[in-house]
Design brief:
By secondary structure, the protein is α/β, with parallel strands linked by helices. It has seven helices and 13 strands. A seven-stranded mixed beta sheet has the order 6-5-4-3-2-1-13. The chain has a six-stranded mixed beta sheet with strand order 7-8-9-10-11-12. A hairpin with a 2-residue loop joins strand 2 and strand 3. Helix 6 crosses helix 7. The longest helix has 13 residues. It is globular and about 45 Å long.
Length: 236
């Protein structure tokens, strides 16, 4: 089962790890690891990685969910030669040039695609804002890690479940619900439950109100996360 370290989030669960608007997480699975997003500020990202015992020189795979500053800000400082960086074709030329300048290889993702051993991109989703999510295929079911869920968290989960024909064990990340009404949030939670999402770990742009509603609805299957979190999914 994967281990997940959250380097960057609006809130922190560790006094040595600084909170800031954005998201970044490292997923370790089957002896491989992938950095998912890079937060909004390189200095904070590197400081938090160091506080959590991580070194960017050992990161060989990076996936960027979408081309917004709070998910790409730390990218220049974690890039190095021989890396593979998974992007969408819609990403800016400036971001792609950063990757090339570091000697890393750009891999353009279009549809569901295996990245490394049991870890996949959910492919390009969304209309105005294109986004990809990370999917981990585990013995307990699928784990989905999202950046901001601009295409809609329910849509992401539904498409992923339909593609893999497997149950959803955990959904973690930003769900972009901070400006929605209680009624709409409760409707989204109902949809996620109907899709069989067993455990939930909302953070970043989900919003404090929505996170509290998720906690109330999911009870023991709600997982509180923030910058500094280290999640051993085998123990969930």
């Amino acid at each position: 089962m994967p281990a997940i370290k959250i380097y960057y989030d609006n809130t922190s669960v560790n006094k040595e790890v600084e909170p800031a608007w954005g998201f970044s997480a490292l997923i370790k699975y089957k002896g491989r690891n992938i950095l998912f997003d890079t937060g909004g500020d390189a200095k904070i990202l590197l400081s938090n990685m160091k506080a959590m015992g991580s070194d960017p020189k050992y990161i060989w795979q990076i996936m960027i969910s979408h081309d917004h500053w709070d998910h790409t800000g730390g990218l220049p400082k974690v890039l190095h030669a021989d890396q593979k960086v998974y992007v969408l074709r819609s990403f800016s030329q400036g971001l792609k040039d950063q990757v090339k300048a570091a000697g890393a290889k750009i891999v353009t993702v279009k549809r569901f695609q295996e990245i490394i051993g049991g870890m996949y991109s959910a492919g390009e989703m969304g209309q105005a804002i294109k986004e990809q999510s990370l999917v981990i295929d585990t013995d307990k079911g699928l784990i989905i890690v999202t950046g901001c869920s601009h295409p809609g968290i329910v849509h992401i989960v539904r498409e992923t479940k339909e593609y893999f024909k497997k149950e959803i064990f955990l959904v973690l990340g930003g769900f972009h619900l901070y400006d929605l009404s209680n009624k709409k949030i409760e409707s989204i939670i109902s949809d996620l439950r109907s899709l069989g999402v067993k455990k939930i770990a909302p953070c970043h742009c989900t919003g404090e109100k929505a996170i509290s509603i998720f906690q109330k609805e999911y009870k023991n299957n709600f997982i509180k996360v923030g910058a500094g979190s280290i999640i051993d999914t085998a123990k969930l």
